[in-house]
Amino acid sequence: MTLNPLRQKLQSNQGTLGLWVTMECASITEIAVALNIDWVVVDMEHGHLDYKDAMDHIRVVRETGTSVIIRVSDIREDCVKRALDMGAHGIILPLPRSAADVECGFRYGRYAPRGARGIGGERAVKWGLGFKDYLQIANEETMIIPMIETREAAADIDNILAIDGLEAIFLGPADMSATFGHLGEWEGGGVAQLNLDILEKAAARGIATGVVGTSIDDARQRQQQGFKMIALGSDAGLLIRSLQQGLSALGRDIKPHLWF
Length: 260
Description:
Distance between the termini: 34 Å
Number of strands: 8
Order of helices and strands: HEHEHEHEHHEHHEHHEHEH
Number of domains: 1
Strand order of the largest sheet: 1-2-3-4-5-6-7-8
Largest sheet: 8 strands, parallel, barrel
Strand content: 15-25%
C-alpha cells in the first residue's frame, strides 16, 4: 500500500512545494504531477468543484510521488469521510475556531479507537482488494490539517498544536485578516507577525506550517522564514499572473494580480 509521500517528506524536515487546485480539469493536476510537485490541494470549500471533480484529480495522483489533499467544505463527518474514501492522502479543515473543532476533524478522519470513521469498500481500499493493508496504515498516514484562519483559532493555537497526531497546519492570511477587521487585505495590521508567531510555536513542537505564496519572491521569503508547505499559487491565479505579465510586457496597462 502506497504511503503518504508528503508525510514522509515533512517527517524528514524537507521543505515542500504545492499547487492549489480550484478548476475542474484533472489535466492541471496531471501536469503538476509530471513536474514532480510535492502536493496538490483540491479546494472543495470555495468555488464549484464537486466530488466527481475531486475524484478526477485524485485519480491522476494515485501511486505517484505527489500527495493529494482535499480542503473539505465543512468540518462534518460526511465531508471528511467521503474525501478520504475517495483516496485522498489527507484533508484540510476549513475555519476551525478552537481545538475542539480540530479534534472533531480528527475524530471523523480516524478509525476506531481514536475516531469514528466508518469502514467502507471504496477507492481508498482499492474496492476491497487492499482492505487490510489500508486499514493498517490509514490512521497514521492520513493527515488532518487545520486551516488556521480565524482570530479564535489564533487565540487557541496552543491547545490546537497540542492535539495528538497533529503533524501540519496551514495558514489562511486573508480570512485571518478579515477576522481582525482588515477585510480584503492579505496580512493586514499585525497579522503577518501573528502568522510568524504561530509558525514558531508549531516548529517548536515539530509541526510543519503551510502557506500560499502570493508571488515567487513571496514564496522564496516563506522558505527563508521556515514554512515547510508552500503553495506556488492556485491554478487560476498562476494563469492570471502569467497572462498579466505577458500582456504588460507587450504594452497593455494591467492592474497587478494581488491574490494567489
